[in-house]
Design goal:
The complex is a heterodimer of chains A (90) and B (216).
Chain A: H1 4-31, H2 36-44, E1 62-63, H3 67-88
Chain B: H1 13-35, H2 42-59, E1 61-62, H3 74-99, H4 108-128, H5 136-162, H6 171-206
Classes of the chains: A mainly alpha (90), B mainly alpha (216).
Chain lengths: 90, 216
């Protein structure tokens, strides 16, 4: 059962979300559709950028940086986390 | 989210050193605080390791929203690992990200500072709102939005103070452009707030001990 405090929290949260969505959509309409690096370059007046988005990726989800190095670094991190998890028996 | 997506050479060497030094001092304080604890908190260390892997992974994936923006999970790192361990986590993520070409090496200091603010504000809001909002989901969501908003403010401040080499735009124009980026970033903060809220609410149900003295 929800208490008044829970409802208050949800109301504040939803209100914040709606406010943020409205402001973001307005900003997005102003800047137009561009990748984050392109958006940055455009904002500060640099000519470079805009490499993002050329590869459609997987259902629109694309990896930034080098995918091979990403795989290696992530693999090492996962192994390290697993070792720490086993060692400390969380 | 709030992450300075500029290449090496965008900031002058002086400001690269300034932000690196500031980040190293803050990380040094975090390490000092962690070492001054009587007994190392193994759960927190393990959580911090998991947060590093998860946040690094999510950091590199560009979501097809608003032209492509990535999540950070920095407020979640603050909530789960705390501000001290969280500061180390974001430093490691920034270094690993630069290693694969996501952000310049010279911007690691500045990006670490931005992410540290997100970690700290996310953690602080989550704790401070405990009596006012007992439910974990909205509290974690509000803490996330607050953290990411402050991160965007710090990101803009750092770029405005540093200036960008090789551009002729006035400070006012750069401020306007960066404010629009921050506003678009906050749209993705909505997604991040939902994800963080759901993760924290789930952890609160199955392992409330991982949230400190929290009870869902």
């Amino acid at each position: 059962m929800m208490t008044l405090g829970d409802k208050k929290g949800l109301i504040i949260f939803i209100g914040l979300l709606l406010l943020v969505i409205v402001v973001s959509l307005a900003a997005y309409r102003t800047t137009g559709d561009m990748g984050i690096e392109e958006r940055f370059s455009h904002a500060v007046g640099l000519q470079s950028g805009g490499e993002e988005g050329e590869d459609g990726g997987w259902f629109g989800l694309a990896l930034e940086g080098s995918p091979l190095l990403y795989g290696i670094v992530l693999g090492v991190l996962v192994i390290a986390c697993y070792a720490v998890y086993r060692h400390f028996s969380v | 989210m709030a992450h300075i997506h500029l290449e090496d050479g965008s900031f002058s060497l002086i400001f690269v050193l300034v932000w690196w030094t500031a980040a190293i001092i803050l990380v040094g304080i975090a390490i000092f605080l962690m070492r001054s604890e009587k007994k190392p908190d193994r759960k927190k260390i393990t959580l911090a390791a998991f947060c590093t892997a998860a946040a690094f992974a999510i950091f590199q994936v560009s979501l097809p929203i608003f032209g492509g923006v990535h999540l950070n999970l920095t407020p979640l790192i603050g909530i789960l690992a705390g501000p001290a361990a969280g500061s180390l986590v974001v430093l490691i993520i920034s270094i690993l990200s630069a290693a694969i070409g996501h952000g310049g090496w010279g911007l690691i200091g500045a990006n670490t500072l931005v992410n540290m603010v997100e970690v700290f504000v996310g953690y602080s809001c989550f704790r401070l709102l405990r009596s006012m909002i007992p439910d974990l989901f909205p509290r974690a969501g509000i803490a996330t939005i607050a953290g990411l908003f402050c991160g965007n403010i710090v990101m803009i401040t750092i770029i405005i103070i540093s200036g960008v080499q090789g551009v002729n735009q006035s400070t006012g124009n750069i401020l306007t452009g960066l404010s629009l980026i921050a506003a678009v970033n906050m749209g993705v903060a909505v997604v991040e707030a939902f994800i963080t809220g759901l993760i924290v609410a789930y952890i609160g149900k199955v392992r409330p001990d991982l949230l400190g003295d929290e009870r869902s």
